Amino acid sequence: MRLLGIDLGTGGTRVLLVDERGRVLSSASAEHAPMRSPQIGWAEQEPLDWWRAACEAVPQCLQQGRTSAREIDAIGLTGQMHGLVLLDAAGDVLRPSIIWCDQRTQKQCKEITENVGARKLIEFTANPALTGFTLPKIWWVRENEPEVWKRVRGVLLPKDYLRFRLTGSKATDVADASGTLLLDVRGRKWSAEMLEVSRINESLLPQVFESQEITGAVSEEGARATGLRAGIPVVAGAGDQAAGAVGMGIVRPGAVSVTIGTSGVVFAATADPVIEPLGRIHTFCHALPGRWHVMGVTQGAGLSLRWFRDQFGTGKEDSPDAYDNLTREAAATPPGADGLLWAPYLMGERTPYLDPLARAALVGITAQHTRGHIIRAILEGVAFSMRDSLTIFANLGVPIASIRLGGGGARSELWRQIQADVYGRTVEMIAADEGGAYGAALLAGVGIGMWSDVEAACDMAVRVAFAVQPRAECGALMNRQYAEYRKLYPALKQISTVV
User: Fold this and answer.
1) Do 136 and 156 belong to one domain?
2) Which of 244, 295, 373, 273 is nearest to 130 (CA)?
3) SS3 state of residue 451
4) pLDDT digit string (tens) for 182-200?
5) Which residue of 259, 287, 298, 392 pairs with 242 in a disulfide if CB–CB is 3.0 to 4.6 A?
6) Beta-bridge partners for 266
7) CA 285 to CA 274: how far, in whole Å?
8) 442 domain-assigned
C-alpha cells in the first residue's frame, strides 16, 4: 500500500511517498513563484501557482518512487496556515491569496477586538486577533476591495484550494480552521458568534472535518492534471504545525516538540482546550479527535542565525556547510557566552509579548568577546525565547513529559546541546524528521483504515533515534542567564526605535 502526503509550503510544494510501514520511499518538490509584496508588510501568492507546483511534484515523486498511480491508496494534505483564497461562483480565484506573514490588517484586528471584546474573542475562538489570521484578511478585502467581495462565493485556506482542484470538494480540517479566528475551538465547529459579528454567511466556508476523515476523492479533472488516478480518497489533513507534530509523534498529552526553522514553534498536545487568558499562546484543535494543542511562537528563531550569516559572514558562509562553520566557532566559546545576551526580536515577537514592534538586541558586549561568542549568544538567546513558551505551558499546567526537537535547529549538535541545557530537560531526536508531509501521509493511512487511529500510526512509524541529556554543570548558569534574558524585553521596550 502507498500513501501520498502533500505539503503546500510558502517557498514550494513537497510531495512524500510512504508505504504501509511508514517508510519514506521518495519525495519531490516544486518551487513556487517568488512571494509578491505590493506594499511594505504585504505578502501575496497566486493559488494557481500552488496548483502548478503540485501538478509538477506529484508525478516526479511517483517516478522517483517507481510507483504507478494505480498503487496510491490515499492522499493527505497539509500546508501553510491562515492564508485567504477567494473563489467566485465558477470556482475561479478572484485575487491573489493574502498569506500567513502579511501584516496589513492591524486596523482590522483592532476593529474585530473592539466589536467582539477581547475576553469574548478568547471565549469564542480561544485566540486573540492577530494580523496573520484569516478573518482580519476577510475584513480587509471587504473594506478595501468591495467589488471583489461582492463576487465571493467560496473562502478556502491554501491547502484546501489544492483539495478543491484535486477533488472538487470544499472542505477543511479542524486544526487548520483553528487559525482562521472563525472556529469554535472548544466545539470543533464554525463559531456562530464570530460569523454573526463578521456578517459572514456560513455557506461561504468549507465543511469542517476531523483530520483523518475522508473529504472526497480525486476527480477525473484532478487525475488528468496530476497523473493520479480518479477515485483515490483524500483525507482532511491538517495545518502545517499539527501535521508536523503528527509526523514527530506529538499526539498524546505530555508530548512536546520544539521546532526551530525560520521561526520557532513550541507545541504541546493536550486532552482538553487549555485557554491562556492573555492570548500569549495559541490554542488550536489537534489533528486527532478529542485532542487539542497549545503552541508558542518565536518569530526570529533560525532567522537570527541566518541574519548573522548574511550580514556578518566572512565569505565562507555561502558554502553548503555554512552553518556548521558558524556553530564550530560558537562551540569554541564557553556556555553562557561570557555574559553576552541576544534578544531575537528581529521581526517583533509573538510569544510571550504579542508585540510586532519589539526589536532585537545584542547586550553585554566587551572587547574580549569574539565572533564565536556572538554566535553562541544567538543560539542561546533563541533557546531562551523558546523556554518562554515552555514556562507558560508549565504555569498553565500543561504536562511536559518529553521534548522532541525538529527543524534545522535540531541538525546542529551544538544547538541540540544548548537546548537541553537551557530547558533543563532531556531532548529527543526522531529517526526521520520529514515535516508536515509525513504527518499528512500518516493521517491518510488512518483515514482508509491502514492504522486504527493516529496514535497507532505514530507508535508504528515514529522512532526516537537518540537523546541528548542536559549537562549538570550548566544548569545553574543557564538559569542565571535566562533570568537576565527575561530583563531584556522590558528594558528594550522603553527605547523607541520606530521611525
Assistant:
1) yes
2) 295
3) coil
4) 999 999 999 999 999 999 9
5) 287
6) 258, 296
7) 10
8) no
CA neighbor of 5 nearest in space, from 439, 406, 431: 439
How many domains does the chain divide into? 2
Residues in the chain: 499
**Does one domain contain both 283 and 336?**
yes
Q: Which domain holds residue 21?
A: 2-242
**Domain match, 123 and 234 both:** yes
| Rg (the chain; Cα; Å) | 22
What three-state secondary structure class fits 275? coil
**Apex CA 155: angle with CA 151 and CA 159, to 5°?**
135
Last residue of a domain, one of 191, 210, 242: 242
Identity of residue 294: V
The C-alpha atoms of residue 141 and residue 98 are separated, in whole angstroms, by 10
Q: Are 115 and 257 in a shared domain?
A: no
The pTM of the whole model exceeds 0.70: yes
Do 226 and 270 fall within a single domain? no
Residue 272: other Cβ atoms inside 10 A: 11
Dump pLDDT digits (tens) for 47-89.
999 999 999 999 999 999 999 999 999 999 999 999 999 999 9
Strands 24-31 and 12-19: antiparallel
Residue range 448-460: average pLDDT?
Answer: 97
- Helix/strand number for the chain, H first, E second: 18, 24
Is 240 in the active site?
Answer: yes
Expressed in angstroms, the distance from the first to the final Cα of the chain is: 58
HSE toward the beta carbon, residue 407, CA cutoff 13 A: 21
**Which residue in 7, 173, 176, 240 is the catalytic one?**
240
Cell of 349: 515577537
| Distance separating alpha carbons of residues 399 and 393, to the nearest angstrom | 8
Residue 342's CATH number: 3.30.420.40
User: Cell numbers 493574502 correspond to what residue?
Assistant: 98
